[in-house]
Amino acid sequence: MGMAASQARFLGLTARKNNVEFEGQQINQQRTTLSNQSANYYNNLLGMAVPVPPSVDDYTKTVYTFEDGALTNQITAMMSQPDGNYTISYLRQWTDDFSVVSANTSIVNSNADKTVFKVGAVELREMSTRTDAQIEAMDKTQLDAFRGTDEYLKTLSDDQLKSLLKEENAYIELLKNKYGKDSEYMVRYIKNTTTGEYEPNFYKKTDLTGANYDDNGNSLSNINCYKIGSETKSEEVKALKGCRVEKDSSGRYINIKIPAYDANGNPDITKGITYALTTSTATDQAAYEDAMNQYEYEKYEYDQAIQEINAKIEIVQSQDKNLELRLKQLDTEQKAISTEIDAVSQVIQKNTESSFKTFG
Description:
Largest sheet: 7 strands, antiparallel
Number of domains: 3
Oligomer: single chain
Helix content: 40-55%
Number of helices: 6
């Protein structure tokens, strides 16, 4: 190889080596950037709060109750006072066996002008608005006219019919207090196959007249019906002052004394009634289920975020692996270039020494 050719080759190899070194620097910078991205992703993972499922214990509380005859009372608040007494509030509950409750809905048949209504073969009767005094004044002729063709009413004596009409006055009052004072009501009596007694079923007249009926006069949907039954009722007694409580060795309340109160509501702690407290636990199931639903939603979001970050980390790792392979290729190429540069350098050195000897 001539001197000029060797020098040209040497320059070409040197330029290639510089390019390889520059590309290697660029790759290292890219790997540094990817490393920073990966570190950020991992920091995001570490900074994410892992959702924790709710504990049923957090929604369970100790409940204290006491009995007062037919009343069941549940303490809702108990606040200690500086004088050692307590101010308490409690929820009083009882069962009212003479209450209006919902009955099975039913299809009702109506005539064209919506003045006659039937359930099955029984015609509904508009409930009497007579006062008790007016009922007592009804003679036999009036009572017979009132019976009409009603099979149940025809089985009643005059006195029984008067008693029934007075009962209906009480029914109407209950119905209006619960479902609307401006409404009128209709009734039919159904024989209870177990007791053999006839029981009233009530219908709000506006529900009957406002319903939609088909061509045969049958209501297109079931119409609400009511009856007399048992219903749990409650009222809250608030902020009774001067109450005394007794605890056992574990700190659990076992007795409560509610004092007598004067006309102004002031407690007389020398008088009152002591009640034994019953302890139980109650779980707010609805609140617990809401918390569990929230947890499931947060867990879903957390899992999605984890999957997204892991996918990004995998992309970064794949890109870094490709760069690492390319860097190894460049390293191999650089070593080969260095070896060839050394060889060319030796050739140039020999040519130079030969030239000096020629002109020496």
